[in-house]
């Protein structure tokens, strides 16, 4: 069984390296897997990733690459040089783009894995339909995940609400990374399809991503420990 510490990714959704370092220091050795997303990466660039990797932490680089295949492949190669463990691409980029990303990851001679974003956890069925996608969120997530697997991706990003359907369709070896996770009683913020850490793991999530409930807590270490215990 995968240790709880390897399944929890803490999102560093802050605007400076100083804020990120403060969070990492407050969590100490209890957490070693961190998400660097658009906010922090735009503010600080690749140096923040290098600092985390250099300190022995693992990085989930969540920039959701979505461009022509050559551009995405080039970006993935650069991420490999940074030493990231996971990175995101958008399934809506299509098969050629997804294959270019996974091929570039293999060429980087690293253990980096590519996970494809299916439907953002901030979206519900009405939002999906409004951008021209008919049917349910679950149907779209499973369809896009099957495309990602066929293209060679190591896994997908989805709400935990779709994990059981993904496992039924794609098996247990495919990574499923689930943001939109909130401990019971915590405000949902801008997330629409929310579950608790225990629910996400019970459904079959490989990793859960938790940000504000930990990073904005009076004691981030205490909140992280509660979630680790819930995962266990």
Our estimate of the beta-strand percent is: 15-25%
Structural class: alpha/beta
> What value does the Rg take, in angstroms?
17 Å
And the CATH topology?
A: TIM Barrel
Q: What is the CATH class?
A: Alpha Beta
Strand order of the largest sheet: 1-2-3-4-5-6-7-8
Shape: globular
The number of distinct β-strands equals 8
Q: Average pLDDT value? A: 92
Helix share bin: 40-55%
Q: Which architecture would the CATH scheme give at its second level?
A: Alpha-Beta Barrel
Describe the structure.
- This protein is of the alpha/beta class and 232 residues long.
- It has a single domain (4-231), classed as Aldolase class I (TIM Barrel, Alpha-Beta Barrel).
- The protein has twelve helices and eight strands.
- An eight-stranded parallel β-barrel has the order 1-2-3-4-5-6-7-8, surrounded by seven helices.
- Strand 7, helix 10 (197-203) and strand 8 form a beta-alpha-beta unit.
- Helix 5 (69-82) packs parallel to helix 6 (95-107) and helix 8 (137-150) packs parallel to helix 9 (163-170).
- The longest helix is centred in the first third of the chain and has 14 residues, at 69-82.
